[in-house]
Design a protein that fits this description.
Number of helices of chain B: 9
Structural class of chain B: alpha/beta
Radius of gyration of chain B: 18 Å
Order of helices and strands of chain B: EEHEEEEHEEHEHEEHEHEEEHEHH
Structural class of chain A: alpha/beta
Shape of chain A: globular
Shape of chain B: globular
Strand order of the largest sheet of chain B: 11-10-9-8-12-13-16
Distance between the termini of chain A: 46 Å
Number of helices of chain A: 18
Oligomer: heterodimer
Helix content of chain A: 25-40%
Number of strands of chain A: 16
Radius of gyration of chain A: 23 Å
Helix content of chain B: 25-40%
Largest sheet of chain A: 5 strands, parallel
Chain lengths: 480, 279
Amino acid sequence: MAETKLREYTKEEIKEIRKTRTPIPEQDPVARGKNFDEVALGYTEEQALREANRCMACKKRDCVAGCPVEVPIPEFIELIRQGDFIGAARKIKEKNSLPAICGRVCPQENQCESLCTLGKKMEPVAIGRLERFVADYERMHGSGSGGEDVKPEPTGFKVAVVGSGPAGLTVASDLAKLGHEVTIFEALHKAGGVLVYGIPEFRLPKAIVQSEVEGIQKLGVKIELNSVVGKLYTVDELLERGFDAVFIGSGAGLPWFMGIPGENLNGVYSANEFLTRTNLMKAYLFPEYDTPIKRGKHVAIVGGGNVAMDAARTALRLGAEKVYLVYRRSMDELPARKEEVHHAIEEGIEFKLLTNPVEIIGEDGWVKGIKCVQMELGEPDESGRRRPIAVEGSEFVIDVDTVVMSIGTGSNPIIPESTPGLELNKRGYIVADENGATSKPGVFAGGDIVTGAATVILAAGAGRKAANAIHEYLMSKVKN
Amino acid sequence: MANKILEKRELRSDLFFFVVEAPEISKKAKAGQFVIVRPTENGERIPLSLADINPERGTISLIVQTIGVTSTKISTLNVGEEISDIAGPMGHPTPVKKYGRVVLVGGGFGAAPLYPIGRAMKEAGNTVISITGARTESLLVYEKELAEFSDKVLISTDDGSKGHKGVVTEVLKSEIEENGADLVIAVGPAIMMKFVSLTTKPYNVKTLVSLNPIMVDGTGMCGACRVSIGGKTMFGCTDGPDFDGHLVDWDLLMARQRTYLAEEKEAMEAYTCDCVPHS
């Protein structure tokens, strides 16, 4: 399979390259702040080979334990070292259906890479970048998603999957590979869930999501777009219509607002709306695309997670002169990925830390400024992070014309309201066991609708576990 | 789902009636609900009320007034063509039960979504009075349709060319004073629904209004459609579209509806000048 003329590294060379990870080429920060093209350009074959040779192939394999879906990391890196890039991609796909996506958006620094043995003394192996490289290589040179050439024996069971985000796509692909007939019901007009409406083009090109979706369709998975489960069909109706099991992966729900005065002024967006208009509806190409968005000159993003970083960097690309990230704790508590924070700083996003909005000031119905209060950190709260406390008399106003609230989401009521017998927790999320089983027989759930907003890989991991549980559930029905 | 256009009628130069094939939606939809429509690949998603629901035929009816690019694009589609995307039914149905005397007030093409609501109210055993108005007789729509089930259809025109000379709220006021009402349902422009609510308030007649804030997904995900009801922020799509008209913050609704006026103008200019690629 080796198509590449391999560069042989001598022992001395390996000793030397192990010291530093191979940098990934990126667009210049000033240039990229004005376009929606991908920021990181990806490894060349040479760079991937160099980075793969940094892996010590240690016996501990802690990296695998750090991965929510247990990708066989040392094995796929070994295949890269041998020049078998397609083999490496397929090796990952044994455990993760979405490597091109996870290679880009996983918080590897807190997962696999944080446990890398090499990382104890030097920089850890850039596992995420290698994952991305092989997935991209396979997409460009290989034969689709892999595995679809081996058609499984049909089991005759039908499974409905609600939502085509990372959880739904993983469940669908796993179950299809086991021979079940899978239909995904997607509420929007495009498949991919948060991968298409939420994560911006510059961090995850939509063509890549499309390619992953097509790979799953090649496995025989059907996708019904514009199908809002809970409205068009209830979960019970899906079961009555001949589906033997239902997986609910409907994702993060309603956007939260702070409940402060002025929050309904024109120019105040939820991050979901801001990102959906831009990414899914392509408002950045307005008026070629019909969906508009306010291109604020001075924009405040409230929040500190990955979504806040995405919103801030999107505002910049829409033409903002000044983008402030308003976060009530300090840099140390920022929940966003380090890499995204670093990219945001490079691009000129101004961090207003230990700052909490108390009012949005308007003029003629439009945002004019955001009144904030300075915070200081007290004792740790139930989340383990130091509790922010307002400093008395410290109010000040930041002049902005647009505010994006990125402080999280609550559960969406559509499925709970329409599904009697589905147990919910007190915050309205679906109660499911570690394998995704809910209180309703045959109904499974996973991803953000169970855990609240989390990461792509955790949703995919929940999908994987649920797929196994659904398979077991279906196969036990045969015996009866 | 095909979304094929089976019928198209021009009701006025700016008002188009469509019957669209949507078997699954038609089986599920109830009066008062709406759909989210994206007419073409580059199109915007907009909410449209259901003007009729026919589960036997597997169709839904939509009425579109050409205001912006999206509605204009829909109006150019012809019988046999397909609407790219229709998602729904969204929102909660209008609560239909026996109230007694139900007065429907339609402003502009708001009379269209009142059609399935009024019919359902009639079937539930109510006396149904319909009030509809326009600037002048030639702009009146849906008079005949409302008459199909209404015990009485009352008309008003600004110029007096038909029915009462004046506005619908004057007709509504005298109807309430003469015969009383147990429920008023108003559908139309926000300003009209606001004045209907102000009219019914002194008589303490329960008034349902179908709000039409700007929306994107229609499933509660984006929060664009937030409205203030009795001082509480709610979402038009998942909490509505019907709300108690006496509790609505109308000024906020109208202000938020104006968010994209400048962009709508720009989009319309770009669409009509043929200077940007469109589909």
